[in-house]
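Exam review. A common question shows you a sequence with its structure tokens and asks you to describe the fold in words. Practice with the pair below. Do the first one on your own.
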Amino acid sequence: MTGGSQYVVAAYAVIWFLVLAYIVMLGARSARVSRQVEAISRLLERKGIAPDDGDDG
């Protein structure tokens, strides 16, 4: 490989790593929010308040 193509390959590798890290971070955040929603739903059920299922129809 020439010097220029090595930089292109390295740039692609860095971009793919950053995209993968971003996707992993979003997945972790989504899982955390899901756990929090479940905990809030359980608390509302204990208090006798029915949580809204989001269905307006």
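Now try the second one, then compare your answer with the model answer below.
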Amino acid sequence: MIVQIATLGPLGRLKAPGTWGSAAGLLWWALVVRYAHQKGGPHEFIFDSLVVLTAILLCGVAAAFIGKKDPSEVILDEFAAMPLVFLFNPHVYGGATSFVFVLLGFLFFRLFDITKPFGIKALEKLPGGFGIVLDDVMAAIYANLALQAVSRLWALLV
């Protein structure tokens, strides 16, 4: 059961599993997480943090069951990290350009997750679920910062 959750069922066995995990995370954000934002305060951040902590545990156990350090079919890490891309960015919560900002955030996340610049690769060396999940969390943080920069530039131009 843990492996099924960590691989998001059949999604982890598809071609380009990280992209599928990210797409599932985007859908999760769109249908569930962004409503925590409407509550105001730190609700969305706390909710995202709890999902990431759960992913660290489940991904670590699933990797041990599978017998690999960071199995490519384990995609709960991308799923859990994807919503972090949109934290604290008002441009993704409605308006005429929100779809463009959401799509850009997804693309930034995939770029940073695939290329692993600025020390992201070093996080993969952490043990167990920490190494599996925290590199994706850092990719999401970088994607968030890039999206924030584009949002601020957009606000200046409009």
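Model answer, second protein: The chain has one domain: 2-157. The two ends are 49 Å apart (CA to CA). Full marks require stating both points clearly.
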